Amino acid sequence: MKHIAVIGGGAAGLCAAISAAFQARACNIPVQIHVFEAHAKLGHSILATGNGRCNISHEAFLSSDEQQALHACTGAAPWDLGSCMSSMGANNICEQEKYTEQATQALPYLQESQLAQHPHNACATQTIHDVQGASITCGVRDQHTAYNPQAAHNPQAAHNSQAAYTSVLSGFPCDSNNPLHHFHNSAFVKTALERLQQAALHGEIACIPHAHANSYDAALSFFSHLGLVFRCDDQGWLFPYSNTAKTVRELLIETAQRLGIVMHASTEVSELVASSSVLSDATSFTITTSEGKKYPADAVIAAWGGKHSHTSLALLGHSVKTVPCVPVLGSLICTYPNLKKLDTIRLRAQVHIVRTQNNTSRIIASEQGEVLFRSYGVSGIAVFNVSRFVHAGDVVSINALNMPISEATEFLKHKLEQVKILNTKACWNDVLYGMFPAAFVDVLCAQEISNNASPACVARALCDMRLPIESVKADQCLVMRGGIAINEVDAQTLRVSNSSALYAVGEALDVDASCGGFNLHWAWSSGILAGACAVNTWRDAS
User: Fold this and answer.
1) Which residue among 1, 181, 436, 475 sits deepest, i.e. has the most Cβ atoms within 10 Å of its Cβ?
2) CATH H-level superfamily of 2-101+175-328+478-541
3) Residues 372, 344 contacting (CB under 8 angstroms)
C-alpha cells in the first residue's frame, strides 16, 4: 500500500487528497491518504472566503459558451455547469483550443479619460498624465516571473540561467476576459491550468468526468459533479447557490470521509524527513507531528498557507528554493488628519498606488470599487487588490469622483452655479453635501478646500486625495505571497523538480491573485492536478 501525506487541510489540501483518492481507485492502486491541519477545523480557511459566502471562482475561467449560459440565468437563478455542458454537445466538449495569454504587448499612450476607463491596469514604464494632469511615469503593476519549463526540470539550469526569471509585464489596459492577468507568476499558472484542462478533456483526471474546451473550468466541473450548484453576481464572481461557504466545506469534508481519507485536525507537522539526505534521491518521507507521532509517506503534498506558511517552509530546510512570505490582499495603514472622523465611510472610487523615486512618480497599480475608510487608514475590495503592489513609502491616491480632473473641474463649476441659483451664498460645503457623506466633506474641506477655492482646486482635492501608506495591515490580509519558488516546480505536475515524491499546491507556491475567486480557483485546480499526478507516478512506474 502507498501512503500520501497532505500538509494543510485548506482548499488546496482537501482537493489534493480527494483527487488522489479518486485517481487511486481508477488506477486500482491501494493508497492511504492522511491530511494534517494545524487548525481545529479542517477547511476553516474556506469559511472566511467571500465574507463567509465562498467566492469559489470567477466567470473569466469559463468559455464564452459557458458564460453565455451563465448570463442566461435570470435574477438569482441557480446555474449548473454540468447541464450547461450537456446542452453544448459532445463535439464541442472534446475540442481543445489552448487559451493564449496576451501578456507582453505594445502599450498605448493613455490620456486621463482612458486611465479612468480601465481600473485594472498593469503596465510597463511610460509617461502618462496623472490625476492632477501633471506628467507622471506609469510603472510596473506586478513583476511576473516567466515560467521556464527547462529550468523546472533542470534545477542547475534554473540556477545558471537568467532566463528562468525573465520579467513578463501585463499589458495596459488589462484584458478583463483573461483570468491570468490577475495572477502573480501568471505564466506558471497558465501552464498548470492548461495541463489540468487537457488531462480532464482526455479523461486522465478521475475526479473530473467532463470538462469543456476553450476554458479553465476543470475545477468547477469537479464541484459540479460533487453536486454543487453556483450563482453569479454582477461582477462575475461565482458563489455556491446556498450563498454560504459552509456548503463548500461540508461537501469536501463529506467526500473525503466517504473516500476513507484520514483527517488530522489540530495537528501540526513538526518534521519532514526524506529517505535520503539528497532530496532528488528521496523516494519517501517520514512525517512527525507535534505530538511525536510518525507517519510514512511515499508522496508528500505541501498545501500549507496563511500564518503557518513561514514555519511550514522551514520543514523543507535549504533543499528547496523559497521566496519570503509577505501578507497581501489587506487594508492599508495610512496617515491623514482626522482619519477617525472618516471611520466607516464608504465611497465608490478609483484607487491608485503612487510611488516616487528620483523625483519621478509612477502609478504602480489602479483599481475601481468600494473604498472603506477606517480609523487607521483605508480598506475595501479595491484597496485589497492594490495592496498586492505596495512598498514602503508609497502613497494611495483616491479619486472620489471617478473622473479625470479636467472633467471634474467642469462638473463642479456647473454644480456650483446650479446651487447658487437658489442659494446665492452657497459655498463648496453646500455643493459637496449633496454628493458625499457630511463627515467626509467636513474633513476634506478642513484639510484641502477653502471657501473661495476654484473649481480646479476642488477637483484636484476630490480626484487626488493622497494618504501616505505606512504598511499593509497584516492581520487582515487574505492571502500570503511567497512560498516555494515556481522555478523549483514542474508546472505540468506540480512536483518539486529535484524530488520524485514532493508536490506543492495553492499558497504553498509563490502564486497569488486579486480578489474575485482567482485565488480559490488556483487552490482547487492545483490541488486536483497534484493529487492525480502523485498517483499517476506509481501507475506509470508499474
Assistant:
1) 181
2) FAD/NAD(P)-binding domain (3.50.50.60)
3) yes
